[in-house]
Amino acid sequence: MHAYHLFDNRDAITGGKWYIHYHASSSGLFDVKPPVIMKNRWMTYLLMIAVAIVGLQCTRDDESGEGEPNPTGNSSEKSITSFAFDGVTGVTTAIDQAAKTVTLIVPFGTDRQTLVPVIGISQYATISPASNVMQDFTNPVVYTVTAQNAGQQAYTVTVVMAGPTVSCLPSNIPLRDEQLEVVYDEDGRVYRVDYNANGEQFPGDRYIDFAIYHYTGGLVSRIDYDLAWVDEPDPDVDAYEIFDHSTPGKIVITLHDKDLDENWNIMQITHYYLTGDKVTSFATYVDDGPRIDSSVYTYNLAGNVERADKYDGTNTTSNGYQLFEYDNKINVFALTGISGHEMLFFFNEYNLSINNVTKSTLHYGSQVYETDYAYTYDSVDKPLTLSWSYDGTTSPAYPYVYPCE
């Protein structure tokens, strides 16, 4: 900023002397010019006008603030600096400027199809699609930021839904063929699961009567099973599984059972492989023999298994695959950790997925098998009943029971 001061030192004899002092305030210096004697009043006026014009120009140079057009027009900045959703709280946002990605975790139950993003970008830049415009974030969305100099940068925005939180765990969980009765320990962990046949239309053929869970260091370390087909006067442990969590990225479960002479033997060993906290594949072996079964799981952005590829025996090509569709409600299997299947600790569409499966389509060779699942829910999206349809037959609606409610 420059400043000019005009001092009047006129006297009656000379007819007037004008002194102009010039200040360079932006540098902190004070500079005094020699006095200029003006004998022509018109020249004085012209000089005053020139001073005013220069001062006005300096003022304009200092006023190119944020939100104003850049007079140079050459800004190359093209970044997303912030990302939020209008009216949605509890959102976690991570912007990776190196990878040019934005990842947001929204609370459970958020409708990702109707979110309105509020996006911060570089000064002088524009963005497409525009901020404050409703967008469907069920799948990743690409936003392009255009700099003032016309340079562009694309960002991939991914919205993931967090898992549910429920204060009341179910004591009864329906399955296609069974009704599970669950008892929890004082820490809220599964202690015992009883397997009971489901009604008359789907009576079921139980393999297990009950299972008892044991924990070490907060992790399941052993499950004891009473087998339904073993003829015995009193309930007894007829098989058990040992869990090994010692290898990062893998859980090894070894199944032991009794032979006819009441001797314990290793029946099979299953290796579950994890990426982060998700089981992405498993392989089952007979003792230390060849592989007899395996599957690879593919997850969608919501955290549900959308596809399971199955490999029989030692095959390296898939023998079949299964596709899954889901609701966006609370899956109680994921809350409890129960797989819903006898002697399978993890199961693809149940405790590996965040939400409830609504459709399962199995492709095996030339055959296709479809099962549809229907639920009713309470006011906080917990399932209350389950029914299913397969091959033209529909089951009754079996209830979930929440004893603390």
Query: How many strand units?
Result: 27
Identify the CATH class of the largest domain: Mainly Beta
Unreliable parts: 1-39, 53-67, 199-204
Largest sheet: 17 strands, antiparallel
Rg: 37 Å
Per CATH, which architecture of the largest domain?
Answer: Beta Barrel
- Written as H for each helix and E for each strand, in order along the chain, the element string is EEEHEEEEEEEEEEEEEEEEEEEHEEEEE
* Total helical elements: 2
CATH-defined topology of the largest domain:
Porin
SSE layout and pairings?
Layout: E1 2-8, E2 18-24, E3 29-31, H1 41-61, E4 80-85, E5 92-96, E6 101-106, E7 117-121, E8 126-128, E9 141-146, E10 152-161, E11 172-174, E12 178-184, E13 190-197, E14 208-216, E15 219-227, E16 239-244, E17 250-258, E18 264-275, E19 278-285, E20 291-299, E21 305-312, E22 320-326, H2 332-336, E23 357-364, E24 367-377, E25 383-390, E26 393-394, E27 398-399
